[in-house]
Design a protein that fits this description.
By secondary structure, the protein is an alpha/beta fold. About 45% of the residues lie in helices and about 10% in strands. Helix 8 crosses helix 9 (about 255-265). Residues about 15-20 and about 465-480 have low confidence and may be disordered.
């Protein structure tokens, strides 16, 4: 039988020196607590358990999540998601060497809360994989069974217990942090410009004053512009030099969020806040500078294009080697896009939030081919320029035609007067019952010719302007406008 293992721990802080094997209360942790706080111990224990049962544990079926909360079941737990993808998608396609049993130290390593029951059913019922918890006193472990009413009730009760435990832990941590704040101690990371004792760090305080001075000026630069200037001057950002997991060291680059964090932290004006509570601290800037900076922030927010739910719809502007990267924005989250290089050598415009944070940052996983997008946008831009040039010529020609166009009202008036004159001549001659003299005949003929001329002008003046600019059909000779 082929076995696999999934291991998970939350963020456990280890002690130092001779007390590294003790918790904060001075109590030595139990063996179970040590295993729960160490991924390697969970994997090694599962391997020993599989050997005792006569099972073969394959390394390729080993998944783990280090310092990940059991409350979430999404991409924030990459090991868990990899295991789910195998069980539900890849395993049904295998012809041999399938995973038969998944080993856990206990159900809480799989996850916590009400959602755990759903994912256990996905693995056991839909995926067809047995789940065995090897921790505890039982020699053959304890299999997680779902299906009967009693099994479902036991699992639901266990999930409720783990969820309640999470709530109690959260309340205890919050209470301790609140008490720490009330004592005047720093809770979490100190604000930029202060050390852990809330004493001013002068080199950082100068940066804080510079940021507020830039924002309060008439120029009123945006967050990205402010960050670019700080990075150009090589000013260390708040997390500069911080060492993350796997040895990664923060480059300490200023960004939109870090600049905004400085501008909205009231510690700069001597007020430290936590969940509605306040306490005094040393001041970095004057109240007048704070008010002018936030007045500019409010004015800028009023000019910013936003969606109905308040999301900012203006893409990040800045220099980029890619044509559309500074101009595009994600249709899902409204964030910026970047040129992602694929393994085939082609580049795609993809959401930056998805790239940095996975589905927790944005659910837009699709990419826009950069070559196609650049070509179509450039083509549309060229067509727009040609259309604008044609529109300018057309507008000038139309204005000229309007200026040269004759008002038909005076022509109609003159025609009516001439027709009335001819009618009067005919009636006068008819009353006298005499023929027209040669002089009257000549005058009548001239008047009729003039009327025909005026009627021709009237016809030309009454033609709609659209007719003057009709495009001839293909195959016919074009008429001159």
């Amino acid at each position: 039988m082929t076995a696999g293992v999934y291991a998970r721990i939350t963020n456990v802080k280890k002690g130092k020196g001779k007390d590294k094997d003790k918790d904060k209360g001075g109590r030595k942790p139990t063996e179970s607590e040590l295993i729960e706080s160490n991924v390697r111990l969970q994997i090694d224990g599962a391997r020993e358990f599989a050997t005792r049962q006569g099972w073969r544990l394959e390394d390729k079926y080993t998944w783990s999540d280090d310092a990940r909360s059991g409350e979430v079941f999404d991409d924030r737990r990459p090991g868990f998601q990899s295991m789910i993808r195998y069980v539900l998608d890849e395993r049904p396609k295998q012809t041999h060497g399938k995973l038969d049993v998944l080993l856990l130290f206990d159900e809480d390593r799989f996850g916590r809360g009400a959602d755990r029951s759903y994912w256990l059913r996905q693995v056991t019922k839909r995926g067809g994989v047995r789940i065995v918890c090897w921790g505890g006193a039982r020699e053959h472990g304890r299999e997680v069974r779902l299906g009967s009413a009693m099994d479902d009730f036991v699992e639901s009760a266990s999930a409720f217990r783990s969820g309640a435990e999470i709530e109690m832990i959260s309340k205890r941590v919050t209470a301790k942090l609140d008490a720490k704040f009330d004592k005047g101690e720093v809770v979490g990371r100190p604000p930029y410009g202060f050390d852990k004792n809330m004493e001013i760090i002068e080199r950082e305080a100068k940066v804080v004053r510079r940021i507020f001075a830039m924002k309060a000026s008439d120029e009123n630069p945006g967050y990205w512009v402010t960050a670019a200037r700080l990075n150009a001057d090589k000013v260390p950002a708040p997390r500069a030099g911080k060492v993350y997991k796997l040895g990664r060291v923060s480059r300490g680059i200023w960004g939109q969020s870090s600049v905004r964090g400085v501008l909205f932290n009231r510690a700069a004006v001597g007020v430290q806040e936590r969940k509605g509570k306040t306490r005094p601290c040393p001041r970095l800037i004057k109240d007048d500078l704070w008010k002018r900076a936030h007045a500019n922030i409010k004015a800028s927010a009023g000019r910013t294009l936003r969606s109905k739910d308040g999301r900012r719809l203006v893409a990040k502007a800045g220099p980029s080697p890619w044509l559309l990267a500074p101009l595009l924005m994600c249709a899902k989250c409204g964030g910026s896009m970047f040129a992602w290089p694929s393994t085939s050598g082609k580049r795609y415009y993809r959401c930056t939030n998805y790239h940095l944070h996975g589905r927790a940052g944005c659910t837009n996983t699709r990419g826009l081919p950069m070559e196609l997008a650049d070509r179509e946008v450039t083509k549309a831009y060229d067509e727009a320029l040609v259309y604008q040039a044609f529109a300018d010529v057309f507008r000038r020609r139309l204005d000229a035609v309007k200026d040269a166009r004759i008002d038909p009202a005076p022509i109609r008036q003159e025609i009516r007067e001439l027709e009335n004159k001819i009618t009067g001549w005919v009636e006068a001659i008819g009353d006298r019952k005499t023929a027209l003299t040669s002089d009257l005949e000549k005058r009548a003929a001239d008047t009729k010719a003039h009327i025909e001329h005026l009627q021709g002008q009237l016809l030309a003046a009454e033609v709609p302007l659209a007719k003057k600019f009709d495009v001839p059909r293909r195959g016919r000779r074009s008429a001159t406008c």
